[in-house]
Amino acid sequence: MPFEPKIVAFLCNWCTYTGADLAGVSRLKWPPNVRPIRVMCTGRIDPQFIVKAFREGADGVLVSGCHPGDCHYYEGNYKALRRVHLLKRMLEEFGIQPDRLKLTWVSAAEGERWAAVAKEITQTVRELGPLHLEVG
Amino acid sequence: MAKIKVRIDGKEVEVEHGTPVIQAAEKLGIDIPTLCHHEDIEPYAACRVCIVEAVRGKRRRMVTACNYPLSDGVEIFTDNERVLRTRRLILELLLARCSEVPVIKELAARYGVTSSRFGYDPKEKCILCGLCVRTCQDVVKAHVLGFAYRGGKRKVSTPFGREQCSDLCITCGACAHVCPTGAISIHDLSLDKGAVPEFTLGPKSAIYVPFAQAVPKVPVIDPDACIQMQTGGCSKCLGVCEPAAIDFGDEDKIEELEVGQILLTTGFQTFDARAMAQYGYGRYDNVLSSLDFEKMLNASGPTGGQVRMKNGQTPRAIGIIHCVGSRDVRHHRYCSRVCCMYALKFAHLVKDRTSAEVYQFYIDMRAFGKGYEEFYGRLLDEGVIMIRGKAAEVVEAPWSIGNGHEGYLAVRCEDTLIGKFREIPVDMVVLCAALEPNADTDKVGNIFSLARSPDGFFLEQHPKLNPVGTVNEGIYIAGACQGPKDIPDTVAQAQGAAARILALIAKGEVLLDPIRAAINEDLCGGCKVCNNLCPYSAISFNEEKRVSVVNETLCKGCGTCVAGCPAGAIKGSGFSDEQIYAEIEGLLADAGGK
Q1: Does residue B392 sit in helix, strand or coil?
Q2: pTM, rounded to two decimals
Q3: CB–CB of B415/B389 below 8 Å?
Q4: Of A17, B52, B231, B462, which is least packed with CB atoms within 10 Å of its CB?
C-alpha cells in the first residue's frame, strides 16, 4: 500500500480555517491527509502542540494563519512565526527533517491557495516518507 | 496729600501738592509737547522740550513741566512769548543734532523752526532722552541699556559696547516701542537665516488672543516673550485686568481621572514645506503655506482679510501648488484629501477680493463631497487657470525686476495637457502643505496601545465596519488623527464615536466573550512575559500579590499569552491545552503514535 502521510494542520479561525471552509464550499479538491485543528489565532499555538503531534504519529505539521499585518488579533501571527522558526531548528536536532513542519499564510478569501498549500505539503511529506520517531 | 489750587495759562485747577505741571495741564486739556516723557516711567527732563514758565510773586523761572512739582501760590505759563522763544531755541538745537528725524522735524515745524543755525546732521537719530535706558532698567528690569561716555560723546550702549547684538537683551522690544525718534530697533536675526517664525504675517505681543476663533477665547501669555517671566519686571497687565484673572504663579497641574471609555481626537500637524526646498518656503518672502494664507484671508487676521505681499502691494498673480508633501514617494504617499477643496476656496476668495490672476498647479482635482464638484465648475467660470502638472520649482524671475516693482516669482511646471514645460510669472505662491500625523503620535500611541497604519495615522479597528474603534475595547479615535479628512467627515466620525460611547454607557453592562484567558494565581511565577505579549494590554502585574492578572473586559481570547507562559499558568477557555491535546490524540488515533 502506498504511503499516505498523516499531517496535522493548526489553522487560525479567522483566516486559514475560513479559507479552507471556502475551499470546501467551492468544491475544490484537497488531500484528506491534512487534518485541521482550529485555534482562534496562530499565536495560540504552543510549540508543545507541534511536538505532541509528531509524537502521536503525525508525519508532518502545518501551521497556517493570517498574512503578516492582517492578524485579527493584531500580531499573534508574528509570535507564531518566531516560535515555529525556532522550533524548526530544534526539531532538526531530534532528527525531524525541517520540511515536515511548514508555516504558511492563507487568508479567508484564498480558498484556492489553501487547496494548493494542502496538496503541496502532502506531496512534500509523501516524498520524505513516514517519520519513524525514536522516543526513549 | 494736601490739595492746592494753581493757575495754568490763566485757568484754575485743583491738584494735589507736588503734582508735576504736565499732569495738571492735562486735567485742563492744555497740551504741552514732550519727547522724553512716558507715563509709566519716572520723568527725566532730558529733552527740555516741555519747558514752561513758573511764576511765584516777583520771581520767574523756566522749568520743565514733566517733573516740576506744583505748590501753593505758583502760576504757570505754557505758551507766552518767553516760553515760545525758549522752546524754539531748544527745538533748533535738537534739529541740529537729529536733522532728518521726522518727529523732530515735525515738532520744530509746528513752532516755525525749519532749519538750524547750529549745524546739520542727517545721520543721528538718538536725542539721548533716556527713555530706552529707563524702560530697560525700571520696567523690564533687564538692565541691558545704559548711557556711556560724557559730554559730546555721550551715547546709549550695552555692556561691552555690543550694540549690534547683546546676549543679555531679551528682545522684548520695549526700548524700540518707547523710543520717540526710532533710533533703536529690534531685529530678529534668526529671520536672516530663513527661519519661519511660528506666527508669521504680523506682530504679536507677549500677551495675546491666538485668533478670533480660539476656544476658549481668552488671552494667553507667551512665556518666552513675557518680560515678567524672564526678569520679574513689567507686570503691567496685572494692573489693567479688572477681574484679576492673571496669575503668574500658575503652573501645569496633572489630574488623574478614572474613566470607562476614552476618545482620542488629537488631530494632525501641517507638513513643513521647508523640506521641499525647491518651492522656496522660508527663502522667498511671498511663498506662503496654506495655513499662512488662511491667516491672511481671515477677517480678523494680520491684514484684515486683504491679500497682500510682504511689501504691502496687492499681488497681480497668485500660484497655488497642490500636493506639497502629499502623493509624494519622498514624503507622504497618501492624499491629504482636503487640499484640492481649500485650494479652490483660496482661488475663489482671491478672485473675490483682488483682480489677480489665479493659477492652480494640480495633479488631480479631488472634489469628492457634496457640492464640491459644482464648486469646482463655478471656479472654472470665474476664470481660474488650472494647469495639470506637478510644479517643479519656484524661482525669482530676474527678467522681471525693474519698472518700479520688485519682480515676479516664477513657477516652473509641466503642463501635461498641452505637453509643454511652462514658466508662469506670479507675485505670490501658496503651497498646499500635506496633513501629517502629529510628531508625538508614537508617544501617544504607546500610552493607549494604539497601532498605526502605514501612513502613520492611528489604526482603526476596521476601515469599513469600525472606523472609530480601535483594537482596544473602550478606546476610540475620531477625526484627523485617524487620517486626513475635512470638517464634515470629522464631525460625522465624532458623532459616531460619541454614539458608540453613549450606547455602552446606557447599556450599563458589557457582554464578554467566554473565550478568554485567565491566570491561575498559584501557578503564576510573576515572570511578566505575558504582560508584553498581549496586543490589547489586557495583562497587568499585581504588585501586592506578585502575580499577573488578565483584565476580563479587555481580553479578546487570542491565546498568545497561554502559549507563551513558561509555567503553563494561563488557561485559555474554549481552547485550553487539554482540549487541543485531546484533539491531536483523536486525529491521530489511527497513527499508532508514541
Answers
A1: strand
A2: 0.67
A3: yes
A4: B462
